[in-house]
């Protein structure tokens, strides 16, 4: 991997962008042998080490109520050279991932939350996307090329403090209630990683298909960078690139499979990253095996994770055969802090937090504009 990165720099193109284009390439398809796969112990790079979590801050009961195994059973890893980066390999209880897939497709896109379709459609047209799309998705034939439903045109949804894609900022008056179930999951994972007072305030959900990618970017629009960025992946797998503090720094490739969680904190909170490619799940089944299982009958009554009906799962399963859903959760404000009355324009760093691309091999990078100090 080091030789590949060095070669890219010698050829006059920054290492990250070159690597993004390499994994984005269709013909010939890229070689994935350098991609770290945390689900396979024998496929770990020398960079990988086991990471200790805090089983005291997240009790077994609270973990179970969030649809998670006890923390002592989680497989967590760190990477040399990336302090504060934690990768948790699918800590979800059997059947619980279904809940999050259904929420991301049926519940979280509902108004008053905001989605990409609102940019060019009326609120009436983007209301109840699930109801308007479910029959079309359920009846789709894989052998035919058919028009996409509205739900399949969904690219992103925001909840909590809504990110403003024009100003690249959050604001106090652009906010809806943050989902209570996602809050419980996020606070639990953050606590297990040592962030006991984490407050889930903003969520961005990204919806990928096999021809989708996410451009090179850094998430720094939040006003408090001492809190971690949490990322939850469901459905098909992704190649994720983790870079450095500079956009041109070399990146490390890794797979994110269904159920995997990433935590970017400390020195890794403001690292550049990207998703150049969506690939089939490692078990090569249409629906990943971890999503085939149903929720156990002994799930606690007060669990935030609920059983998904057969009717709803038929739609979700059809969708997830060709798609990946990613939930990113972040704390926007420091504890006890409020939004400033006026933005401080002198020190503003105007960075697009990730350009979502579909079906384009050249649109792999987001524009970065830094104002003079």
UniProtKB/TrEMBL annotation:
Entry keyword annotation includes Cell wall biogenesis/degradation: no
Region (Disordered): 337-373
Entry keyword Disulfide bond: no
Pfam families noted in UniProt: 2OG-FeII_Oxy_2 (PF13532)
InterPro entries named among the record's database cross-references: Alkb, AlkB-like, AlkB-like_sf, Oxoglu/Fe-dep_dioxygenase_dom
Cofactor(s) it depends on: Fe(2+)
UniProt domain Fe2OG dioxygenase: residue ranges: 199-333
Signal sequence residues: none
UniProt keywords, alphabetically: Dioxygenase, Iron, Metal-binding, Oxidoreductase
Name of this protein: Nucleic acid dioxygenase ALKBH1-like
Protein source organism: Huso huso
């Amino acid at each position: 991997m080091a030789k590949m990165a060095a070669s890219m720099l010698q050829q006059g193109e920054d290492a990250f962008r070159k690597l993004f284009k390499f994994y984005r390439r269709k013909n010939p398809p890229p070689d994935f042998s350098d991609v770290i796969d945390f689900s396979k112990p024998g496929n770990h790079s020398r960079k990988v080490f086991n990471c200790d979590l805090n089983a005291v801050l997240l009790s077994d009961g609270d973990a179970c109520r969030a649809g998670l195994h006890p923390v002592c059973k989680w497989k967590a890893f760190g990477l040399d050279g990336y302090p504060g980066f934690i990768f948790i390999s699918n800590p979800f209880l059997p059947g619980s991932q279904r809940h999050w897939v259904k929420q991301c497709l049926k519940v979280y896109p509902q108004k008053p939350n905001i989605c990409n379709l609102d940019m060019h459609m009326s609120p009436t047209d983007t209301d109840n996307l699930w109801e308007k799309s479910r029959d079309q998705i359920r009846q789709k034939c894989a052998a035919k090329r058919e028009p996409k439903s509205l739900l399949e045109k969904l690219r992103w949804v925001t909840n909590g403090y809504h990110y403003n894609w024009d100003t690249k900022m959050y604001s106090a008056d652009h906010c809806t209630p943050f989902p209570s179930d996602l809050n419980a999951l996020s606070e639990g994972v953050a606590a297990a990683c040592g962030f006991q007072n984490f407050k889930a305030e903003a969520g961005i959900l990204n919806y990928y298909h096999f021809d989708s990618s996410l451009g090179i970017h850094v998430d720094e629009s939040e006003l408090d960078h001492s809190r971690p960025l949490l990322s939850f992946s469901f459905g098909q797998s992704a190649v994720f690139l983790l870079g450095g503090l500079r956009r041109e720094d070399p990146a490390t490739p890794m797979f994110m499979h269904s159920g995997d969680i990433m935590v970017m904190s400390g020195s890794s909170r403001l690292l550049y990253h990207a998703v150049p490619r969506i690939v089939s799940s490692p078990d090569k089944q249409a629906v990943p095996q971890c999503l085939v299982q149903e929720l156990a009958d002994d799930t606690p009554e007060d669990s935030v994770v609920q059983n998904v009906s057969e009717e709803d799962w038929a739609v979700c399963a059809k969708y997830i055969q060709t798609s990946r859903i990613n939930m990113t959760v972040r704390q926007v404000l420091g504890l006890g802090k409020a939004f400033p009355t006026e933005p401080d324009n002198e020190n503003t760093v105007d960075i697009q937090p990730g350009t979502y691309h579909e079906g384009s091999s050249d649109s792999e990078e987001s524009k970065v504009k830094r104002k003079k100090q």
